[in-house]
Amino acid sequence: MSTATTSTETKPRTSRIGKRPVELPKGVTLTVKETPAGPVAEVKGPKGTLSRTLPQGVLLKVEGNQIAVSTNTHPDRAACLQGTARAHLANMVKGVSEGYTKTLELVGTGYRAELKGTVLHLMLGLSHPVIYPLPPSIKAQIPADSKGTLIVLTGPDKEEMGQTAATLRSFRPPEPYGGKGVRYKDENIRRKAGKASAKGGKGGKGGKLGQTMTKLEGRERRKLRIRKKINGTSERPRLSVFRSAKHIYAQVIDDTTGQTLAHASTLSEGIKSELSESNKTEAARIVGRYIAKLCKEKNITKVVFDRNGYLYHGRVVALAEGAREGELDF
User: Fold this and answer.
1) Residue 117 — pLDDT band, cuts 50, 70, 90?
2) Domains parsed from the chain with CATH numbers
3) Which of 22, 141, 205, 298 has its Cβ near the most Cβ atoms within 10 Å?
4) Which pTM was predicted?
5) In angstroms, rounded to a whole number, what is the distance separating the alpha carbons of residues 73 and 142?
């Protein structure tokens, strides 16, 4: 008894996305150079020039103003390589013809950005400004009406644009309770419910007295935690801050000898005339500049900043910025 055998040829699979041609807009050109690592595609356009090494086995063919992508590799890998190469090529063409834009929002009290040349300076509620040099192909713009709370990034390279935006966001990711931080525009932040504000009942600390005690205890814990990490020396003394409801005080302390090297406050005689028409925040900035001046007279150029358990915002930030304006390094 004989059996009939049928032979079937294995046809390479094609990608539904990969088999679509890529349109070449007016003013955009494609150059393909074969190398041992694979074909190198270079795309030139009004927004710049991009090049990428595509996987081995990928074939590019220009027909008029369209680019056709195909492969001559093993059928199991043909579809995925074709789709990947086509997607990369389409992104490059769009980048050099239209460009990509990414907008970041800075949400938080005192959060702002400043562009100095090609370097971004970010104030994100930390004890120091975050300095980030932009990649050569990425340009940043800060709209004047945003007061430094919006950063608009533009560039031809989609990957580099996404990586730059992700890096900036990582400096202060948005937190789920208050939503403060650096976020993408129109990003949906998944919010969490905070602790109950009132803790009435037996054993609770309800009312204003309980809230005030909790706030003071929190500051004391932060103060002790910070003091374990920083210590003033004769070469780099400690700049400590204290504030009351009306005034703010700054001391430069050498912890090795227990001596106060310089001190200033809103009650200092040397700056009373400047404080006559200033609000509390501006007064703190003036005190910061004055303490920097006193340090410079004593040949002190570097200090460690001790916020003394206070949150880094408001008058504490203003004093620190004033000291930096007075060329005090920390």
Assistant:
1) very high
2) 22-97 (3.90.930.12), 100-184 (3.90.930.12), 226-325 (3.30.420.100)
3) 22
4) 0.55
5) 47
